[in-house]
């Protein structure tokens, strides 16, 4: 039984080409740096985002927290948007692993005001924590992209105060597509960048943390400390190579499908599509519980072989990806009309 899964672009299945590459991948011990497939992936990944070096890691959350752990000291403060993934969806890991506190700022659809960023940097005062890091995010987890000029301005402020910048670029290739720039131009606005191979790129697992050679050397030791010293993971790195070489090139299809989905949903009575969060492959919309309760909607969709999540912050989120076709979207639209009309 086939399900149309709109919950996230993390639910994709590896392609047949990926499965064959995984089965045939030469492997070694990646902790000892002799897994040729992992080494190839890391070199390719670093080149893709214009950084000197990279390390293959289990997940995006792992990569973000590894970056915080490597950039900062215990007791440091990190300036970050209040709606960023590190704050909202990483279970408070920054306080446990890096031992830092987060100074959260309001954002405009994921965009921080550079003036407020600079204002939030702590003085050299015995009573205040030291600002150890600034975190930016592109694309934002709520489907909006941040303009390159904004990131560049924040980077200049960081350099002025000798503070590093980390970019949560989980969907950096989606952001680059939406901005019509190369991913390396976005990554240039940060000292380190994390991006996912399993969000929209069809790899079964894994993310990348990239930065300078010196930063990645320190990060590798912290990666081991955090339990991320992986062994014969060339098996999954093989899928990551295909993800970067091929899957990044087909993202325009997902963006077009998301625009189409948003357009068709907006034509349905009682559905309010959020136009500010439709920059990449996500569609956010409101549908009042008085029309149909979220539990009932999720159940009725499931009965029609469609998987969706419940609302978050009052909105539903539908995500397009390689396993969602235009025909699937038409079926989803037909189904939701039948359910609520």
TrEMBL record:
GO cellular component, one term: cytosol
Any one Gene Ontology molecular-function term assigned to this protein's record: L-allo-threonine aldolase activity
Record PTM N6-(pyridoxal phosphate)lysine, positions in chain: 199
Highest taxon in the source lineage: Bacteria
Domain Aromatic amino acid beta-eliminating lyase/threonine aldolase: 5-286
Cofactor(s) required for function per UniProt: pyridoxal 5'-phosphate
Any one GO biological process: L-threonine catabolic process
Sorted UniProt keywords: Aminotransferase, Lyase, Pyridoxal phosphate, Transferase
Family: Belongs to the threonine aldolase family.
Name used for this protein in its record: Aminotransferase class I/II-fold pyridoxal phosphate-dependent enzyme
């Amino acid at each position: 039984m086939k399900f149309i899964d709109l919950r996230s672009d993390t639910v994709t299945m590896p392609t047949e080409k990926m499965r064959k590459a995984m089965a045939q991948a030469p492997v070694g011990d990646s902790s000892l740096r002799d897994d040729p497939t992992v080494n190839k992936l890391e070199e390719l990944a670093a080149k893709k985002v214009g950084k000197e070096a990279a390390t293959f890691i289990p997940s995006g959350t792992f990569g973000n927290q590894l970056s915080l752990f490597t950039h900062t000291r215990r007791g440091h403060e990190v300036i970050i948007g209040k709606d960023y993934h590190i704050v909202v969806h990483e279970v408070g890991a920054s306080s446990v692993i890096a031992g830092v506190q987060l100074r959260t700022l309001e954002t405009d659809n994921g965009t921080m005001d550079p003036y407020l960023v600079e204002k939030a940097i702590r003085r050299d005062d015995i009573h205040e924590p030291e600002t150890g890091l600034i975190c930016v995010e592109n694309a934002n987890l709520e489907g909006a992209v941040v303009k390159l000029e904004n990131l560049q301005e924040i980077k200049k402020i960081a350099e002025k105060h000798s503070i590093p910048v980390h970019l949560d670029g989980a969907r950096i290739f989606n952001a680059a597509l939406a901005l019509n720039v190369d991913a390396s131009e976005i990554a240039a606005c940060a000292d380190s960048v994390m991006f996912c191979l399993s969000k929209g790129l069809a790899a079964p697992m894994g993310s990348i943390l990239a930065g300078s050679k010196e930063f990645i050397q320190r990060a590798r030791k912290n990666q081991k400390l955090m339990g991320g010293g992986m062994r014969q993971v060339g098996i999954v790195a093989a899928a990551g190579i295909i993800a970067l070489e091929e899957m990044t090139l087909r993202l325009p299809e997902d963006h077009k499908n998301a625009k189409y989905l948003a357009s068709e949903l907006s034509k349905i009575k009682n559905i309010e599509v959020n136009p500010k969060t439709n920059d990449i492959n996500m569609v956010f919309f409101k549908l009042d519980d008085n029309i149909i309760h979220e539990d009932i909607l999720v159940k009725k969709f499931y009965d029609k072989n469609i998987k969706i999540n419940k609302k978050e912050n009052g909105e539903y989120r539908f995500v397009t990806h390689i396993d969602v076709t235009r025909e699937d979207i038409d079926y989803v639209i037909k189904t939701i009309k039948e359910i609520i009309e």
